[in-house]
From TrEMBL, chains A, B:
<dbReference type="InterPro" id="IPR016171">
    <property type="entry name" value="Vanillyl_alc_oxidase_C-sub2"/>
</dbReference>
<dbReference type="Pfam" id="PF02913">
    <property type="entry name" value="FAD-oxidase_C"/>
</dbReference>
<dbReference type="InterPro" id="IPR025650">
    <property type="entry name" value="Alkyl-DHAP_Synthase"/>
</dbReference>
<dbReference type="InterPro" id="IPR036318">
    <property type="entry name" value="FAD-bd_PCMH-like_sf"/>
</dbReference>
<keyword id="KW-0285">Flavoprotein</keyword>
<dbReference type="Pfam" id="PF01565">
    <property type="entry name" value="FAD_binding_4"/>
</dbReference>
<dbReference type="GO" id="GO:0008609">
    <property type="term" value="F:alkylglycerone-phosphate synthase activity"/>
</dbReference>
<dbReference type="GO" id="GO:0008610">
    <property type="term" value="P:lipid biosynthetic process"/>
</dbReference>
<comment type="similarity">
    <text>Belongs to the FAD-binding oxidoreductase/transferase type 4 family.</text>
</comment>
<feature type="binding site">
    <location>
        <begin position="258"/>
        <end position="264"/>
    </location>
    <ligand>
        <name>FAD</name>
    </ligand>
</feature>
<dbReference type="InterPro" id="IPR016166">
    <property type="entry name" value="FAD-bd_PCMH"/>
</dbReference>
<dbReference type="InterPro" id="IPR016169">
    <property type="entry name" value="FAD-bd_PCMH_sub2"/>
</dbReference>
<feature type="binding site">
    <location>
        <begin position="125"/>
        <end position="131"/>
    </location>
    <ligand>
        <name>FAD</name>
    </ligand>
</feature>
<dbReference type="InterPro" id="IPR004113">
    <property type="entry name" value="FAD-bd_oxidored_4_C"/>
</dbReference>
<protein>
    <submittedName>
        <fullName>Alkyldihydroxyacetonephosphate synthase</fullName>
    </submittedName>
</protein>
<feature type="site" description="Important for enzyme activity">
    <location>
        <position position="309"/>
    </location>
</feature>
<dbReference type="InterPro" id="IPR016164">
    <property type="entry name" value="FAD-linked_Oxase-like_C"/>
</dbReference>
Length: 522, 522
C-alpha cells in the first residue's frame, strides 16, 4: 500500500515534526520565529466534469477507478515545490483535477487518452507527485476538464533478464517499491534522489532525474535502455539495443518529455547486483574550491566512488545533513561525502584507489560518524522545510549544472542574485552532488524570512537566480525538469528553434494538446 | 592537405594493392578468380545547374569555392559501401552532384542553405565521404539541382578547455587531423572507427559513429557535450552542461540526424589526456560463446579495457586482422584483442584487474605479436575489399547490436540468412567490437563469388540479413547510420510513430525538404 503524502507538506504525515529544538535557537537568531500555520479548513473546487464524461470514464476503467472525492483530488493538486506548499497551506486548490483515474496497464492508459482526445480533456500523468517545478499544473482553460491519470495501479516488475542485466518496470512503482522487487531478484537500480521514498519510476524517466548515487550508478536517463509509451497517436516502443545508430536516439526524446508527449507505461533499465558492502565516509577540505578540484580530479581519472558530494562552507557550517543537529559543527571547511557500494572486493579496490588521491590533494578524513549520519538523514531535508515554513522561514532549493571552468562564476552569480533579491540576511547553502568528467551540478538551498507575500517573494528570487544561470551559459535545471516554472528560461538554453522542435514533436504525438497542457512547452 | 580517396576504391590511392599472394590461393580455392576490373573510362553527367544559380553560389562563396569539374564531382558521388563501389566501377555516376561548394564557417553554411531554400536545391553535406549506408545519395527528382556541401575548409580547433577537458572542433576535420590538433594540446579524442583515416568529425556526429576504442573512450555520441548546426530555419546551439533535465536532450536528436535536419558546424567533445602508454594483447578462447561471456563479465564488472574485441571461429581462422597473412592461423578457437591506453599507472591497474578475470574464465594468452599486429592492420581491411572485388569476390560488411541474452539467436539468424541468400560457399565472419553492460554489437564480414548482377545479389542478401535483425528485435545498425540503405527497416525498429516523429522534426527544421532528401526519412 503506497503511503499518500500529506496534502500540504512533504512526505509521510506520520513523520511530520516541529522544528527540532537544536535548530530553533539558531533560526530565531537569524530570521525570528513567526507562527505560520496552514489554514485549518480548505475547500476543494467542485469537480466540473460533465456526468456523461464521468460515466464514459467509468465504462472504460470501472467506477471504482474513477474518483472525484475531495480528499483525493486535494492530494492530486500540484507537486511539492515551496510555492506548491504555500498555495496548499493558504487553501488555494484552484488547480485541483476534476477527476482522478487509475488505469491498469498500457491498454487502459491508451483508452483513457483516446477518450480524452475525443472529449478534449486535459490529462496530467501522476506518478509520485513530487514535482518541484510545476510539472503537475495543467492549463485548464479551453478543456472540458482536467484528469489526473494516476499510475498507482501500475506497479509490476514486468520482466527481468539476468543475462543482459535489465529489468522492465511499470511507471507507478515508487523508489522503495521498485528496489524491493529488484532486491528479491538479487538486483538493484541504485537510483536514490532525495525524493526516492515517494517518487516513481515513470517520473524519474519523464524528468531525467538524477540520484545521490549518480557517480556510481549513473543518471536515470543513462540507466534506461528501453521505453514504452502511450500517446494520442498510438504506441511508441523504443529500445532495440543498448546503443545504436538507427537515426537519432528517440529514447532521449521521451526521457525528459514530462508527460507532454505521451504517458510512459514501461521502463526497461539496466540493473546491477545488489551490493553486499556499503561504506560511507566523510572528508574535510579547506575550501569549496579545493574540494571541487578533488572531485574533478577523480572524475577525469575515472575514479569515482558510488556517492560523491561536497557541501560549501555555509552548508557545512549549518550541517544540514543532520537536521537533529543543525549548527552543531565546529570543524569548519567543507564536508565531502564519499560512498562505495558493491562487492567487498570492488569496494576495497575503488576505495584504495580513491583514498590516496584525496589525501594527496589535501583532504582530511572526517569523524567516522559523518558518513553514516549522512546516509541516515539523506531523505529527511524536505521534512525540515515544512517545519521551517511553520515558523515563517521561506525555504526552497534550486539547482543547475555547468562545465568545470564555469563553476566558480555560476556559483558566485547565483548566490549574489539570490541575496540581492531576498536580502542580506538570506542564507544560501550549496553542494555539488553530481559530477561528470566535464562538469558538475550545483544545488542551492535558500532560507529567508518570509515576507507578507511569500509567493511573490520567491518568484522574484527564482527569476533572479534563473537569469543568472542562463547568463553564464549554464542549464536552468540539472535534474528537476522544466515543468511550468522553468519554461520562461527554456528558450535561453536551447534556443527558440529548440523550443520549436519540441513543439513540433508534441504536435505530432499529441495533435489536440491534451497531454499536460502548458508543461514543458506551450 | 586532405588526401582524396580513390573514386572507385577505399582510401588513399597510393595504398591500393593487388590481392596479397598469401591470400590468392585460398581465395581461388573457395571462390575461383575472375578478373573484374573497373571500367577504364567513365562519363560524369553534365552539371545540370542553371548558370544563374551557379553565379549566385559564386557570389556567396567566391568562384574558387564553387566547383563543377567532372573529376571532383566524381569524387563526391556516393560513399564507400560495396554497392557504391560496384556502381563506380561500372561507370554509373548517375548520382553525381551538380556542384561542389566549399563554405568556410557556420555563417557561409547558413548562407548556402538559405540560397538552397530559395532556389529549391538539394544539399548533401559531405565530410569524409565514408558512408556505407547510402547517406550521400540524395533524391534528385523535383529539385533544381544537387549541391555537395563540402566541409573541407572547416578544419579548425575552435576552442580547448583544459579544465573542463572539452574541445570544440569543426566538422570537416578528418580523424587524424583532429587528433593531431588535439595532440598538440596534450589531448586525445580516442575515436578510432575503421574509417578513421578518412572520416570526419561532422560525420562521426551525424551518424552516431562508434570506434574501436569505444570500451575505453565511449561511442562518439557519448563523447559529445555540445553541438552547433545550421538549419534552413536558423541556428541550433546545444550544450549548456554535461547533462541536464531541461526537457529532452536535443543533442541526441542532432546526433544521428545524418544531414537531414541541419548541417553540423561545430562539435564540442570531451577529451582525455594523450595516453603515455599503450599495450595491446591477444587472448584465445575455446569458443565464440566463451569469449563473449568473458566480455560480458568484464562489462558488467566495470572492468573494460580501452579496446576489447573478439572474432568468431571463422574470422579467427581467416585471420582478417592481418591481410598480409590471411589463412595463416592454425591455433584455432577465437581470438580476442585487449588494449589498454592511459598513464602507465592506469594501464597497469586496469590490466592487473582484467587479466585474472580472463584467465579465470579460461582465456589463454596469445602470442606477443598478436596485439601489435592488430594495431598495425586495424585500418587496412577496406583496402582488401577492393583487391577482392578486382578478382570477382563480392565482399561487404554489416553490423547490428542487441542485448546479451539475444546475442546467440541474432548471430545464428543473420548468418543463416546470409548463407541462405548467397549460397553455401559463402564465407560469413563475425566479431564483437563494442560491448555494453547490457549487450554488444555484432559485425559481420561476408564474402561470396560475385554473380552476374552483384548489386542485385547483395541487395537480396542485405535484405535477408536486415529482416533477420529486426525479426529478433535487434537494431538494423549499431554504428553505420540509416542512410538510404537501412530506411526500409527503420519503422520495424522505432515504429511507424517513431518515423512520424522524425518526419515532424525534419518538417520543422527543413520545411522545404532541401537537406539530404531521401536520407534517414522520406
Amino acid at each position: 500500500m503506497t503511503v499518500e503524502m500529506h496534502p500540504s507538506r512533504w512526505g509521510d504525515p506520520a513523520q511530520a515534526a516541529p522544528l527540532p529544538d537544536s535548530a530553533r535557537g539558531l533560526v530565531e537568531l537569524v530570521f525570528g520565529l513567526t507562527d505560520r500555520p496552514a489554514v485549518a479548513e480548505v475547500v476543494v473546487p467542485v469537480s466540473g466534469l460533465a456526468p456523461a464524461l464521468l460515466a464514459g470514464l467509468e465504462d472504460l476503467l470501472g467506477a471504482e477507478h474513477v474518483l472525484t472525492d475531495d480528499a483525493l483530488r486535494r492530494l492530486r493538486t500540484r507537486g511539492k515545490s515551496t510555492p506548491d506548499l504555500l498555495r496548499q497551506r493558504a487553501g488555494d486548490l484552484s488547480d485541483a483535477p476534476d477527476v482522478v483515474v487509475r488505469p491498469n496497464g498500457h491498454d487502459e492508459v491508451a483508452a483513457v487518452l483516446a477518450f480524452a482526445v475525443e472529449h478534449h480533456l486535459a490529462v496530467v500523468p501522476f506518478g509520485g507527485g513530487t514535482s518541484v517545478t510545476g510539472g503537475l499544473v495543467a492549463r485548464r482553460a479551453g478543456y472540458a476538464g482536467v484528469v489526473s491519470l494516476d499510475l498507482v495501479r501500475m506497479k509490476r516488475l514486468l520482466a527481468v533478464d539476468h543475462t543482459s542485466m535489465t529489468a522492465t518496470l511499470e511507471p507507478g512503482l515508487r523508489g522503495p517499491e521498485a528496489e524491493a522487487l529488484l532486491a528479491a531478484e538479487g538486483l538493484t537500480l541504485g537510483h536514490y534522489p532525495q525524493s526516492f521514498e515517494h517518487a516513481s519510476i515513470g517520473g524519474f524517466a519523464a524528468t531525467r532525474s538524477s540520484g545521490q548515487s549518480s557517480a556510481g550508478y549513473g543518471r536515470f536517463d543513462a540507466l534506461v535502455v528501453g521505453l514504452r509509451a502511450a500517446t494520442p497517436r498510438g504506441e511508441l516502443a523504443l529500445g532495440s539495443s543498448p546503443a545504436n545508430a538507427a537515426g537519432p536516439d528517440l529514447r532521449q526524446l521521451l526521457l525528459g518529455s514530462e508527460g507532454a508527449f505521451g504517458v510512459i507505461t514501461a521502463v526497461t533499465v539496466r540493473v546491477r547486483r545488489l551490493p553486499t558492502e556499503k561504506v560511507y565516509e566523510g572528508w574535510r577540505w579547506p575550501s569549496f574550491e579545493a574540494g571541487r578540484d578533488a572531485m574533478r580530479t577523480l572524475a577525469q581519472a575515472g575514479l569515482l566512488p558510488t556517492v560523491l558530494r561536497l557541501s560549501d562552507e555555509a552548508e557545512t557550517s549549518i550541517n544540514l545533513a543532520r537536521p537533529d543537529a543543525i549548527g552543531d559543527s565546529s570543524d569548519g571547511g567543507c564536508l565531502m561525502i564519499t560512498g562505495y557500494e558493491g562487492t567487498p572486493e570492488a569496494v576495497a579496490a575503488r576505495r584504495d584507489a580513491v583514498t590516496p588521491v584525496l589525501t594527496g590533494l589535501g583532504g582530511l578524513t572526517a569523524d567516522a560518524g559523518v558518513g553514516p549520519a549522512w546516509v541516515e538523514g539523506r531523505f529527511r531535508a524536505p521534512y525540515l522545510r515544512d517545519s521551517l515554513l511553520d515558523v515563517g522561514v521561506l525555504v526552497e532549493t534550486l539547482e543547475t549544472a555547468t562545465f568545470w571552468s564555469n563553476v566558480p562564476r555560476l556559483y558566485a552569480d547565483v548566490k549574489a542574485a539570490l541575496v540581492a533579491s531576498l536580502g542580506t540576511s538570506t542564507l544560501v547553502l550549496c553542494h555539488v552532488s553530481h559530477v561528470y568528467e566535464t562538469g558538475c551540478s550545483l544545488y542551492f538551498t535558500v532560507a529567508a524570512q518570509e515576507a507578507d507575500d511569500p509567493l511573490a517573494q520567491w518568484a522574484a528570487a527564482k527569476a533572479a537566480a534563473s537569469d543568472a544561470m542562463v547568463a553564464t551559459g549554464a542549464t536552468i535545471t540539472h535534474h528537476h525538469a522544466v515543468g511550468t516554472d522553468h519554461k520562461p528560461w527554456l528558450a535561453a538554453e536551447i534556443g527558440a528553434l529548440g523550443v520549436s522542435v519540441l513543439r513540433a514533436v508534441k504536435a505530432d504525438l499529441d495533435p489536440t494538446g491534451i497531454l499536460n497542457p502548458g508543461v514543458l512547452v506551450d
